[in-house]
Amino acid sequence: MIRQIEERDIPALVELGAEMHAESSFADVPFDRQRVENMAWHCLHNADWFGAVAEHNGRIVGMFVGNAGPFYFSTTQAGFDKVWYVTPECRRSIHGVRLLQAFLRWCGARDLLFVRIGVSTGVNPAGTDRLMQRLGFTAVGGNYSLKLNPAGQPASGNTQPDTGESTAFPV
Q1: In Å, how far are 21, 92, 138, 145 from 24, measured between CA atoms?
Q2: Beta strand 2-4 with 115-116: parallel, antiparallel or unpaired?
Q3: Minimum mean pLDDT among 55-59, 89-93, 140-144: which range?
Q4: Over 126-147, what HEC string results?
Q5: What's the rounded mean pLDDT across residues 142-162?
Q6: Which helix (H) or strand (E) is 22 found in, with range?
């Protein structure tokens, strides 16, 4: 079952957020429970924010948080996802698709003409790409990540091929 986020869901959403964080490309970034809780409050108290959960057998197994806002270059409003997560044991179910469809209906009710969904967790990007294309989305770019050391240089452990070309930008 898909439904709007309710105040009673916040502790479960924070736990889902921690689970998502732990398996994602963000795992080495500190997790702040209060920030996740604050995002849930935005969904409850701000008309420009959307929040839904997927329940299975009485347990929350997925969440979607998004918002409506302008592009940085235009006053045109669009729908943007912030969090889309389904627990590993429910990923091959319909829950993720239904969460996204609920967001799309919310966007449509606000006359938003554009929706942008980002994929930055690093969890099954090929499978996510196949799903999104089946749902009618078009891939328009990619996500790239680089961890820096305090001097602003790539931190040890980054894997970058040596192309023989300079990567320095003139300043």
Answers
A1: 5, 18, 23, 12
A2: unpaired
A3: 140-144
A4: HHHHHHHHHCCCCCCCCCCCCC
A5: 79
A6: helix 10-23
